[in-house]
Records
---
Amino acid sequence: MNSSPILAGLAGVLSSAAPILFAVIGETISELGGVLNLSMNGMILLSAMGGFAASLATGSILLGFLAGAAIGALVSLIVAFSSITLKQSQVAVGFVLALLCRDLSYFLGSQIMGQTAPRLNLLPIPFLCNLPIIGPLLFNHDIMTYASFILVIVSWFHIERTTPGLMLKGIGENPRAAYVRGANVNRLRYIYTVVGGAIAGLAGPLYSLSVKAGWKGTISGLDGIGWIVLSITIFGGWTPFRAALGAYLFAFLQWLGLILQPVMPNVPSQVLQVAPFPLMILTLLLVNISNAEWMERSLSRLPVPVRRDILKVLHSLNAKPPASLGVPFDDES
Amino acid sequence: MIVEFRCISKAFGAVKANDSVSLSVPEASIQAIVGENGAGKSTLMKILSGYLCPDSGQILLDGKAVRINSPACALRLGIGMLHQDPLDFSPLTVLDNFILGSPSRFVPNRRKALEDLAGLAGRLGFSLSPDARIDALTVGERQQLEILRLLWLGAKVLILDEPTTGISLPQKEKLFVALKTLAAEGMSIFFVSHKLEDVESLCGKAAVLRQGILAGTMEQPFDSKELVRMMFGKDLGPATRSCRENGKPQPCFNLEVKNASMDGTRFRMKGIGLQVQAGEVIGLAGMEGSGQELFLGACGGLVPTSGGAICLGNAGKAMTGRTYHDFQGSGVGYLPAARLEKGLVPGLNLAEHYVLANRMPGFFIDRDKALDLADSRIAAFNIKGGPESPAESLSGGNQQRLLLSLLPDNLSLILIEHPTRGLDVESTIYVWAKLKERCAQGASIIFISSDLDEILQYSDRVMVFFAGNVTPPLDAESLNVQRLGELIGGKGWEALQGKKEAHQENKELEHA
């Protein structure tokens, strides 16, 4: 089954990207509805700690994941309440929550640090896992990694192919028009923010019960993931498949850092560990660079055929956020 | 459906937007609702379409009193409203917009919707590509889509709010034919407008609102003079003649565009040349999105040119590739069509606008001085508002006056998108009087308008845009509405000597 180390490594990329995928899809759903949930970083840490604690106390992995989802839903309920009902700035509230939840997870988790909780087992799919190449790559994972594959497809189907999905895009794009077409905009925003938060909340336990099993407080290595999730959401252009591509790219870069370490002993290991973060942000910049006016101005100096091709590529990469992202909706006036 | 308003009243604070308005509209008719800005037309229509609840009074449909709580509720009762800026979703496709909000299954039946869309469009003579994205459509096409959608959802009463602003002449004709067809089929149509010629050519009846009160009604044939008197409570003189009366323009150039080209999203414009003399007014005509916005932007440094040169002033200062700030520094002013969004700062009051517009030197703001300054500008430009009123509280006409009053004194070139869009007759006359003052002082004006009469009346020369093709500047006196309308619709271009080549070249580029 473990035919080659590279294949095993790539399979590892798929499973280590799974928590990022949950978080990115959750955030994408919330942002499509028009609510920017900036608390992601703290939310992942808190749900990782909470999920770990729940599963430690009960011995049940399922309860660990449920606790994670509940924490995600609760934190995003705060975001939803303050932005939809109180009409406060989503950036301010989200940012404060990101910091608060992070420190809360360190504080509350200090007692369970280093203990051993149940761990998610591999669940090879019979017959399929024996297929050459794709067997070990796709069908030898834990259940949540399979779930992450399915989540991408299901969320894509919901957003792109169903009536409620169309309305989801509508309330984030032009809530007034959605209201005229009979949507209860604020209720839908509540639902999608909380559902998105619950999905993203699964990312935490997925780390602490599987990908980076255990809770080690500040050295858990989870701080910062949430910010990358936010940038992958932008990279993904608010579409699940492109978001998945972003998540896999990030996980791939992290894996590359690991395997390059023995090859390049001169480079400090910290550089290779941290490199995926700036690389991801750089990719994001490149993808959306054609939005910038100076880019257009400087491109206008190039000869026409060259410029046209460059522009074509840039425009196809470029994605626009939902037009009413972060804007509260009031059906009066 | 018979629609009856009974003693509808609605007040916003101390202002009575509707004061006991009663009106009955029969089936199969087109009813015009006219009045100047702020007369209460849109309040009345918003009450009918469920946006606002009246303070008192009733609405009866086919003789039955109804309560309309929301736009969705209005649509269930068969009342659909087409907003001035169609309420749609720009990144979605035509078909998605058509489906969105319809009571359909979990997974919508796209094939059925597609058939229905094509069927309805065919019946009304509209042609819409179902896969096109809304942001690639003109306002006229978006209106057509909204009408089709409302019909599909079973609307029997259609409200159109200023539907002819921002759409081209051919689109307007198409719209009117469709509306007449619908009325003949039994639909009741409300046509809200301040364009009397549109009302006269389309509507069977007109109701005039003035300061919230129903000032009177009139049936075909309309007496324009009487309508104007009802709207304003007084006679208005005919709009004054163009700036050409200022005598021969001095041989002094304010702008020279040499062989310029620009890239639009759907076409490339090239070989545009124009010399503008001091005191001259140039009108840019064409369907929305035909390239006139690009050209006007390029004249102000807002749109980068991809070839040719743009020079300012008599000395021919080369400005190609410079930013808007450089253009501003050289005496260019730009007034956008989205007055509040692009031209003003919502949230700041009038006095603060004057301070921002560099009318007051110094680092610290002298409040008293700022208020005095604002007072004098407000009086000079006859703006209905005080120094402390926020910019967004002004009506469209007053926002345009405010923008004019913010322009620096020593401009040599003023660029304007739709100078009088959405303005009533009085404000229109006022705005142009102010602009002509500028011309008399030696400034030049280039403006975009979709109102052909405005183009012909105020321009010295006219450039017509059609899908990225541009006519050379044509003398306005050699044009009439008919000819201009044809050019805008893409007819009669072959007769324009010298432009034929460029026209064909562009065609080839489009195909490539």
---
Amino acid sequence: MSVAEFFDMGGYALYVWGSFGVSALLMVLEPIMLRSHRRAVLQRIARIIRIKAGEKV
Amino acid sequence: MNARLINWFKFSSPATFYPLAGRLVPIFSVLAVALIGVGLYMSFFIAPTDYKQGEGYRIIFVHVPAAWMSMFIYLVMAFWAALGLVFNTRLSGMMTRALAPTGAIFAFLALWTGAFWGKPMWGTWWVWDARLTSELILLFLYFGYLALQGAIDDTRRADRAGALLVLVGVVNIPIIYYSVRWWNTLHQGASISMDNGSTMAATMLWTMLIMALGFWAYTIAVALARVRSIILEREADTTWVSELAEVRR
């Protein structure tokens, strides 16, 4: 089986890659978004703690 | 029995669950990547071409696991919602909230890949068939839960309202599952059922099961990672959060 044949998927290329592609995209995007959200939350909490520490002094 | 009960309640405290979840996330991430990697390889190189549907049938290796997960995640959410309403544990609401976006993604993927299978096989992207319609309702239930939860500022009340919505929506799950049997629909019957076993070739079945296990591991990893952020946000004012190594940096 050649590479071109493989990607053609017996004429079903659009449907097979449309399904697997969008699934892969979402399942890669979700962890990336989670990571950036976690960073933002940590930064926000660290800033609040710094502000509070400053108030006490 | 009693000692076990106490043990479980210990982990319902966000402060103890946060580090536990942190240790579990990498384990399930590795499992997910390995299982989905093997599953994808089998989907394209091991599983034989279907005699009727040609290569197009390979869509089921992502369609069926996604559809299973969309229903299963909802049941897990309902479990946490019920637990939260009965025991009033804070972690329950956080777990329900952490699972919802992933459930919505899988419900969307089940519909999306279903459409991409339906177009070449049935000649249409969408029909108002019982299976498809009830799965669409499931997607809307996920959206509805997220919208309701987000609209209420008081997290306790948001959790209770969300839990109630999730529990009422559970009625939809058996409707999705049995829709192909109760109504004469375009969607084919279950390939794997609890009372008849499987009607598929062994390699196809294994490929689907390995993909499903991979989706499981993915869901656990993502939900635990999300619940950690939710715990941090909700417990931001507590001492234990301010003493965390990742906050102090």
